[in-house]
Design brief:
38% helix; homodimer; 20% strand; 538 residues
Chain lengths: 538, 538
């Protein structure tokens, strides 16, 4: 991945003309403006300050090839891939770069690295694919003897696959495409497709309690973890796989989502499935967002949840129509059909099913009947196929928008069905207030549960002079609206550094004490990923 | 509930003649033998030893009506309802009786009781319905200034029901039938039916990570907890309801299953459902247990899991036929049909569906096709209805068997599908070895998951001279076989005192450290339910 953005160099997205027009007319972004990133050599890096003794010890443990402090290694482990991270990187701010990047080759080597760093009080920042959008991999090492980025890329072995029980043991460093490629060879799939799929890892998914685009069907990662090998400075926890248990508190759930703050996910045994014979994604239209939400609630509570269901609000639907390629004959027919059915300013949903042909057909027909009963209008497979093609495109597109001088970010939450409309209104209003009139705020429902759903907001504005300050104002306003409105501060992005201030609202002061107790036992020196997840005592 | 057994006085079960014959012929239990329990007055109780000051403080907090140390209160809170508990009670052993039984009326009163007891180092044993079969409610107060049983029966309020999000806030002390009665008034159900349903409570279910007979369909209690109000000596944790979150470790999962050792579940917001319009339970026959297991695996992995699915092995099937009422014409027809189909010594399964009529029919037909494809033979609704009628009968029957001088107990585990047959063989062999030839060991699969299933063993023998020692030998043999065979030490009974020695094998020494860290933070004085769940450091 290129150090200042998403994807590999040369993979650039061109915005359609209509998008350029929208940027100028709606966000006030000057048409010709281009803000390109600095070169790698121009990135300002702090002097490495790690004790020489520790560097030598780590080199002794891992070999010189796996201990790097060159410019490229440090810059590429300095930040994640959030909007503020990219703003900082593109402007040459490498102030958060680790002193050293190490690449252990086994769980035993991870343990040795943690011990060495704990002994010298050097901060350790576990690093999977580096795709965090909440500041989760940014070293925060004030008060420490430097920062070591623990790159888990070499823990990429596929362990045994149990085809009878449908589980697979996967190394933490395996990337999404590699997981799916290896499982596909056996006719299997994990089915975990976050937008970061191409560059995120098994360990990152588990450590951040990730949800993928199809997690309503395949299950969130926390529902897929059967067993776990977890290495902390004070010791190792191996939880053997088991389908369910009543043997006390579920420790697995304390380690899943621990974001490198308690220790390191080295290996996970995950629940897998037979690879789908068929994927069928369709578009549906609803007259209003509220009508669509109600239809999705009925689906979820009838145990008819599709594998993918995303309902865009009016703004998101409008934007996707606006930037679509010029309408051909087929699109004009669809538009006329929508107008006649009273769906002119409608909300679009993508409803997707995967599985055997028979399964897909059976489930699709049942959900279609319920969606029609809820006022939905089928738009056929075309919109679904278009969504599938673009499902990982967001981060690529973002690079181009940043070049054009656009503020663009996403945030997400979840709440009960009865609170969904109020939370949607509250967060949207907070973002619009914070960003001003030349902004665009849009939202979709992305994950369905029997008791509620998630809301995923995307927002755009012209970049201000103080791009980071402008972003922070919007982020704080939205986060405050979320916790005051009864939502969770994050449904699938994780906590990291950016959501830290809202963890007290999330679990209460005494809930934080419980997290601190775990932290102190697992990481007595407090070196694991400081400044993330668990706020200091107030 | 009567103090020495199950149900109310006068509710006695008569064994059929065939059962008496089996007891004599197979277990060597003399036909006329009757071992009746002592009277309440004959139970030997230790002198109360709680500091007077604490007793007065608790009386001041709760009122004299809610602070009892009479014989009936103490004996009825001395033990749970396991086989060894009943053996002890019936023989007049009240040595584990608490010094005091208190009944707080609110979460605030619970907090005040915990503070008072922590200050005096008196052990506190949370008590819901008292139905633990693993020694979970037995006071273990050596080294403490006495034991207080914290009866939560007065926390029995139904809080708000959210009919849109399908959640209900329930007081910890609500009993199963009360929960279902109140929800039924609104057309709703929780669907949680452990065999102890009539006498167990919301708080007990949550604290022990309970699974009910229909939990393959409605979800285990840990899957149903949306929010929680949890009071520990050091503070309170209120986790507001949310359908899902990525905000760090899931603290709820650390409190669910904490068995009173970390604190007290005072209130739970649980996920509920529309009450079923229809319940349809059917019998199925398989030629062998292995064939039946394989058919159930196919169901589970095809997402066609019934709400109830129990597959009895040859021994359990044989016993249920043997003690059934004398065969009428219909039964003789069925037997001939089974014989002709090669199912003479078969394994019987109960397959049940609940929901709307349309749902039940659709799911039933799909599962029936898969079961037939797996070698199953439908036996129609009669066996299903018989099972439904007797679903809560086990503990009543047990009282009569104890009177007859029979050792009878159950234990359970879960493992992956690929390990199921080996674990089944291993545990069965260990029990038969421990109990000797005049015993009967039988098993059923009771809960299905995509990755595995649970095994539920029932075993019988004639009571030896040293009934408790005889039981302990069998229990230890089975537990050892479970952990060595890769099973979890308990799938739904919990840990309590009886499974304590196997928790190290379950989560490892460092996993125990994590539990201890939570314990020390929530309960610094260590007064909460000592001697349960978390073994001392080795």
């Amino acid at each position: 991945m290129r150090w200042w953005g998403w994807g590999e160099d040369g993979y650039d997205v061109n915005l359609p003309e209509t998008a350029s027009f929208l940027l100028e007319s709606q966000l006030g972004v000057p048409a010709g403006q281009r803000r390109t990133p600095v070169t790698l050599e121009e990135v300002r890096l702090p002097e490495p300050r790690l004790p020489v003794r520790l560097r030598e010890r780590l080199t002794g443990l891992l070999g010189a090839d796996n201990v790097r402090d060159d410019r490229e290694a440090r810059v590429s482990h300095a930040l994640g891939r959030s909007y503020p991270d990219l703003i900082r990187l593109r402007s040459g701010d490498g102030s958060s770069a680790p002193d050293l990047v190490v690449r252990p080759g086994s769980a035993e080597q991870v343990a040795a690295v943690l011990a060495a760093c704990a002994a010298e009080r050097a901060a350790v920042v576990p690093f999977g694919g580096g795709t965090s959008v909440v500041g989760g991999v940014e070293p925060v090492a004030e008060g420490f003897a430097g920062a070591v980025s623990l790159d888990l890329g070499r823990l990429n072995e596929l362990g045994e696959i149990d085809k009878t029980s449908l589980t697979a043991r996967l190394g933490a460093g395996m990337l999404g495409p590699e997981v799916e490629r290896r499982l596909a060879e056996e006719g299997l799939t994990l089915g975990h497709f976050p937008q970061s799929f191409e560059y995120s890892t098994v360990g990152g998914w588990v450590a951040t309690r990730s949800a993928g685009q199809a997690s309503s069907g395949y299950g969130r990662i926390d529902e897929l973890v059967e067993g776990l090998r977890f290495v902390a400075p004070a010791g190792e926890i191996s939880l053997r796989g088991r389908p369910a248990s009543a043997a006390g508190p579920e420790l697995r759930e304390l380690l899943v989502g621990s974001e490198g703050v308690l220790g390191v996910v080295c290996e996970a045994t995950l629940r897998i499935r037979a690879a789908p014979q068929q994927r069928r994604y369709e578009g549906w239209s609803f007259r209003t967002f509220a009508e669509g939400c109600e239809a999705l609630r009925v689906l979820a509570q009838a145990d008819a949840t599709p594998d993918v269901s995303r309902l865009s609000d009016e703004a998101e639907t409008g934007l996707s129509f606006a930037v679509a390629p010029p309408a051909g004959r087929a699109e004009r027919v669809v538009k006329r059909y929508l107008r006649m059915a009273g769906h002119e300013r409608s909300c679009m949903a993508i409803i997707g099913f995967e599985g055997t042909e028979e399964d897909v057909e059976r489930r699709r027909l049942r959900s279609a009947a319920l969606l029609r009963g809820g006022g939905g209008l089928s738009l056929g497979r075309r919109p679904g196929e278009a969504w599938q093609q673009g499902r990982f495109a967001g981060p690529y597109l973002r690079d181009e928008l940043l070049t054009r001088g656009v503020l663009v970010d996403t945030l997400e939450t979840a709440t009960s069905w009865s609170n969904l409309a109020a939370l949607y209104e509250g967060v949207g209003a907070a973002l619009r207030r914070a960003l001003g009139s030349t902004s665009l705020v849009m939202c979709h429902v992305s994950h369905l549960y029997r008791s509620g759903a998630s809301l995923y907001f995307t927002f755009f504005a012209g970049q201000g002079e103080d791009a980071l300050g402008q972003w922070r104002t919007a982020k704080e306003a939205a986060s405050q609206a979320i916790v005051e409105g009864g939502g969770t501060i994050t449904h699938h992005h994780g906590v990291g550094r950016d959501h830290l201030p809202w963890m007290r609202a999330e679990v209460g002061e005494f809930g934080l004490e419980l997290l601190r107790a775990a932290k102190e036992r697992l990481d007595p020196a407090g070196v694991m990923n400081p400044g993330k997840l668990i706020p200091d005592r107030s």
